[in-house]
Amino acid sequence: MMQRFVSLVALLALIVGLVVLTAPQREAAAPPASGAPLHAPGYSALQARLVQTGADGRPLYTLDAASIQQQPDSGIIDLQQVQLGFHDTSGDKWTARAVHGTVAQDSRVVQLDGNVRVAGVLPGSGETAQIDTQHLSFDTNAQIVTTQDPVTILMSGRQLQSQGLVASLKERHVQLESAVHGSFVP
Fold first, then answer.
1. Could you state, in order of their start, the residue ranges of all structural domains in the chain?
2. Which residue in 175, 154, 157 sits closest to 165, CA to CA?
């Protein structure tokens, strides 16, 4: 009787062993069929605020956006519903708003697109100024605002229109490029 029991257990072990050995092997997840390497998806954020500080630890500018999406393959960061806040050399606050923006990684230039409006207080006068255009570049390091698009400037209730603009906030200098319409009489 014992011999039958041992034979039955041995036969059962042989069957289990055969099933295990002949079963198809599980494979690790295969890489994409295209053979392309996998890339990190990048980061994204909603209602984000980025603050760039200077050597003294004080904010140089702030960038608020409804959404931020990094595109790691291109090195571009997309921004939606953007507001950029900064101070000129007099300490007066300026803001730039746009529907869309982009900034390249490791770049200090923010590209703003769509209903761009820059507004702030003119140094020494206390008067507000407003610049409206569709596309604008802001070099946050040099504090230079540029565009080649049509621009409308509103100051002291007066309006100037131009094709293109270069404004240096550090030097308090604005240069209208061409096709200037309007005048300011002192």
1. 44-181
2. 175
| Segment 68-93 mean pLDDT | 87
- The tens digit of pLDDT for each residue in 132-144 reads 999 999 998 888 8
Distance CA 86, CA 51 (A): 10
Token reading at 87: 């101070």
CB 87 within 8 A of CB 120: no
pLDDT digits (tens, 9 = 90+) for 2-29: 555 445 545 455 565 545 556 666 555 5
For the domain covering 44-181, report its CATH number. 2.60.450.10
Residues 48 and 64: their CA atoms lie apart, in Å, by: 6
Q: Which two tokens stand for residue 27?
A: 């494979």
d(C-alpha 149, C-alpha 133), whole Å = 7
Structure tokens at 165: 């603009």
The secondary structure of 86-123 as a DSSP string is: EE-TT--EEEEEEEEEEEETT--EEEEEEEEEEEEEPT
Taking the C-alpha atoms of residue 121 and residue 130, their distance in angstroms, rounded to an integer, is 9
